[in-house]
Amino acid sequence: MFPSVASLLACCLSLCSVAQATAIEHRAASTSARDIQTYYNVEGSRHAEKAKALTADGYQIISLSTYGSPPDVKYAAIWSRRQGNPFEVIQGADKKTYDAWLEGWKTEGFVSTHVSATGPVDSAVFAGVVEKVNVTSWAQVCDLTNPWGYENATGGVSMTIKGFRMYGTPSDRRYCILGHENVNNDMSTIFYTTNYSIDYAEVYRSETQKRFWRPAHLFLSEDHVITPQFVDTDVGTWVAKEGLSADKLAKEIKAQKNNGLVPIDLQGGGNGKEARFSVIFAEQDVPSPRKWSVTGTTGGFKDNKGAQAAMDNVMKNWMKKNGVRQAQVAIASNGTVLTERSYTWAEGNRAVVKPDDIFLLASVSKMFVHAAIYNLIQAGHLNYSTPVYPLLGYNPEDDRANNITIQNLLEHTAGYDRSVSGDPGFMFQTIAFAQSNGTRPASLRDVIEYMVARPLDYAPGDGYAYSNYGSMLLSYVVTNVTSTPYLKFLQKNILKGLNVQLYQTSAKKHENDRIVQESKYTGYDPVHPKTYKLVPGPNGGDGAIKEESMGGFSLAASASSIASFIGHHSVYGTGDREWNGWRDGTTAGARTFAESRGDFDWAFNLNTREYLSEEEFDDLRYWKMPFLFEDFPLA
User: Fold this and answer.
1) Is 363 known to be catalytic?
2) Which domains, from first to last, does the chain contain?
3) What DSSP string runs through 73-138?
4) Which of the four pLDDT bands, split at 50, 70 and 90, describes residue 34?
5) pTM (2 decimals)?
6) Which of 21, 116, 121, 105 is nearest to 78 (CA)?
7) Catalytic: which of 17, 80, 188, 363?
8) 333, 596 in Cβ contact below 8 A?
9) How confident is the model at residue 28 (pLDDT cuts 50, 70, 90)?
10) DSSP single-letter state for residue 403
């Protein structure tokens, strides 16, 4: 080990500290058969003694918190007995001493894994842990006056926050932030308090409404402000508590032990009897590993075995690199599915994807409204040149809008530019307030009436701008002309038995879905516009009400259904199968692609768009899969 002068000085400082609080220690066995030891309200000398003894006994520290006002500083920690890397701890150090200690161990190849601080800026006391662990890149910055300034220290590298402490005073806050490079594209969120406080209860409610998400840390300041961090990993059953006194914490630890749960994160804040704790209990202190699974069949290639191995390898490498949990790939010819492979890179508490599972399609949904319009044109109910608003009985404020035709909407040349005036498909809360003062959710009809009262962004036919609203308006045309709800018209006249469904907005409707449309983002609920409640991105947090936007981006189907459908319908244009045409879709919780490529059709679905980058997605659809098709041609 590296016995730096700084570490010895810090140890001496901690041994000389004086404390008045009663130390409390607990020991429990977790359901993963690892011993857990927990203590809190201990002074620096006792923490140092415990660290030495527990280290010798094969324990690793998994949670560390320092709190209280110097010199009366206390420590709370959780230790787990398990195999681990060499590590060193420090406590009771001022910033200069701590920084020297950290730099010393850093030169020896150690990485900071825990950091905590307490007290006013000029007399803050630091504690931490460094570990000999393989982390490619990491960054730790303390004494930040704004937590968002941490991004300037990462060199553009995506980081997962591993440690945080808001110290100082309410009028002069400081932030200490530790991050490790996010090499697996793991999802997490953290909510800082700066000049504006967060609504912790609302944040907690909305974050845990996202399926499989849980609190990872409930970091606590001296004035009891919680900075919550959430992740989507699996530790079994979990329970989180906050605002506990030492006595209540002791009772909670005992109660949760009887339930088979152990503490995995413990944070303290405050002095003496005013000290409060936030704690997270779980069945296991180490998140469950992901497992790779493949289902489905392969056919239609000259070398089915070779093609299957190559395709599975492409998807395995791509999904692991990008952290994507669920995906499908399907290949068809003349509407007949030849290959359908389903991929899962996920924890055991999530479903293994099957070929008939349905995914949110995003803008791949638009191919169905194109097919419906083509059906009505072929039947003589519409023409490409039909003016849309006069057909629907509207008199737009901008007279130019009377010239918008079916063709304009199909080709995105109607005069709507979302980069100029916004995307109505994701503005349902705004439109609800404009049309009804927020007394009810906006409908598609409300969206149309909102739009006809506003000027166009350019004259119809004079430009091109991709428009979700245009496709939504086309679905309204289908309903108006046929007197049939849009989805029912598709099911009766277009789909020919294919399983294409509405992806409903409400999160409750998806509590048991096999496919989890994953997004870390939340936003205001457009279904209840006046509540300003946060909901997951795929469930209205992106601003959309999916029941009203089916023509644009809110249908769901399997990759097999899509590959089959585009064997007889244009994938991007309007009419019959389109040679070498393609369409992609992206929305919160979904990324999709479909292509008619030469004499076959293929599609793939992902359950998220939060992979490493769009360059990664393009590499998959434009290079990796096409090269596979060249190496393994169809029979």
Assistant:
1) yes
2) 5-282 (no CATH), 363-553 (3.40.710.10)
3) -EEEEEEEES----EEEEEEE-HHHHHHHHHHHHTTT-EEEEEEEES-GGG-EEEEEEE----S-E
4) low
5) 0.93
6) 116
7) 363
8) no
9) very low
10) G
